[in-house]
């Protein structure tokens, strides 16, 4: 199946490509473009790979609130649904703790079945976002006037993003994170929003990160972490995204991952910055940051990292990032369906799947005499409560 996808991608792109040769990075600019990153960055990327893998582990379930035990805890507060995707699941939205602040993670699942392959093979391109007029908060409207007129992206991946965009908007609006909403950072200690995904999920995460970077408050950090993402943007869009200071981007690539090289590089499709090149042959996961090359207004792909690998060495065995293979186990539900997440600042989040669970959580709050808490209604059936409290409250909650 992978072979069919690659062959059809190449045939379609050859038919659509222009006679103008793709610009190559000048060799004079190629020196010092490959910089080894520190262990802190490697550890961060390794953990994000586990969160991306988790999006492929979800089953179609009624209870949308689970607490997953990994290196850090993440509370899944919403499952992204899309009937175009395998198992009708496109990913999840979760809350975790990072550097003493709460971080929203939006993770997208990779290719898992025939429905996803049909989406992959929709190789037409489209101009993104401009037809989406979104009411943010307090009457503030989205504005796409700054997107370049020639920006185009993969239509199949864009349709996959559009199918879940409104679900993500509803959650972020519920947390008062969109432009025009009342401030909530002082309550939740929100540190940012991360978009993660592997393969197909990496492409969708990339498209989503640009979209929401323009909808979220400027004070909220937007991070993109993709693993083995296929090319999805034309050079105009890729360069525009690369110059977008609102997004901190990590495009992670293993040396011989064939899927990261399709569709072939051309005037139709090009990778976005910034590439992080992982030596998956070493147990230390030595990783390099590979700088793009500026040529006029264009940001060209780095010539010294994954593009320096011969096509004859590419395959599918290199698509497993940081050796993340197994799905994580779910923590036991110790509170009758009410999930608890605590970060280092003592900010706690309750997640309840229906009003009965919410009432149970509220009774627990009253029982331990928590002074303040805040209610966010994500949808009619999904309720999240966040409140400021002390860590010594936790033993009483768990009795």
UniProtKB/TrEMBL annotation:
Q: SUPFAM superfamilies attached here?
A: alpha/beta-Hydrolases
All copies of the Fungal lipase-type domain together span 106-265
Q: Which Pfam families match?
A: Lipase_3
Q: Which GO terms describe its biological process?
A: lipid metabolic process
Any signal peptide, and if so, which residues? 1-19
InterPro entries reported in the protein's UniProt record: AB_hydrolase_fold, Fungal_lipase-type, Sec_MonoDiacylglyc_Lipase
Sorted alphabetically, the keyword list is: Signal
What protein name is recorded for this chain?
Answer: Fungal lipase-type domain-containing protein
Q: What is the lineage of its organism?
A: Eukaryota, Fungi, Fungi incertae sedis, Chytridiomycota, Chytridiomycota incertae sedis
């Amino acid at each position: 199946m992978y072979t069919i996808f690659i062959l059809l991608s190449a045939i379609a792109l050859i038919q659509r490509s222009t006679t103008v040769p793709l610009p190559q990075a000048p060799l004079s600019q190629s020196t010092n473009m490959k910089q080894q990153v520190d262990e802190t960055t490697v550890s961060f990327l390794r953990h994000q790979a586990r969160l991306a893998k988790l999006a492929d582990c979800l089953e179609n379930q009624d209870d949308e609130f689970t607490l997953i035990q990994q290196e850090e805890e993440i509370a899944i507060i919403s499952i992204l649904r899309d009937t175009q995707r395998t198992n009708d699941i496109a990913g999840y939205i979760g809350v975790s703790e990072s550097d003493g602040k709460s971080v929203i993670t939006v993770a997208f699942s990779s290719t898992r079945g025939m429905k996803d392959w049909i989406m992959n093979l929709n190789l037409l391109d489209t101009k993104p976002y401009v037809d989406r007029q979104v009411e943010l908060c307090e009457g503030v409207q989205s504005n796409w006037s700054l997107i370049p007129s020639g920006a185009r992206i993969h239509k199949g991946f864009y349709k996959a993003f559009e199918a879940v965009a409104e679900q993500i908007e509803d959650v972020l609006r519920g947390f008062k994170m969109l432009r025009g909403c009342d401030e909530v950072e002082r309550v939740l200690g929100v540190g940012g929003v991360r978009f993660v995904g592997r393969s197909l999920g990496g492409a969708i995460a990339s498209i989503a990160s640009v979209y929401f970077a323009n909808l979220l408050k400027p004070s909220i950090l937007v991070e993109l972490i993709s693993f083995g993402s296929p090319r999805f943007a034309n050079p105009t869009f890729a360069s525009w995204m690369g110059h977008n200071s609102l997004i901190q981007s990590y495009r992670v690539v293993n040396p011989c991952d064939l899927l990261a090289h399709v569709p072939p590089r051309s005037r139709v499709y090009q990778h976005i910055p910034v590439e992080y090149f992982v030596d998956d042959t070493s147990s230390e996961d030595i990783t390099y940051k590979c700088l793009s090359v500026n040529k006029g207004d264009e940001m060209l792909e780095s010539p010294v990292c994954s593009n320096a690998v011969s096509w004859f060495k590419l395959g599918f065995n290199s698509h497993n990032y940081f050796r993340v293979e197994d799905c994580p186990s779910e923590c036991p539900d110790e509170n009758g369906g009410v999930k608890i997440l605590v970060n280092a600042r003592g900010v706690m989040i309750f997640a309840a799947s229906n009003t009965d669970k919410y009432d149970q959580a509220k009774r627990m709050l009253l029982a331990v005499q928590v002074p303040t808490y805040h209610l966010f209604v994500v949808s009619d059936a999904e309720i999240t409560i966040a409140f400021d409290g002390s860590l010594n409250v936790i033993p009483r909650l768990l009795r």
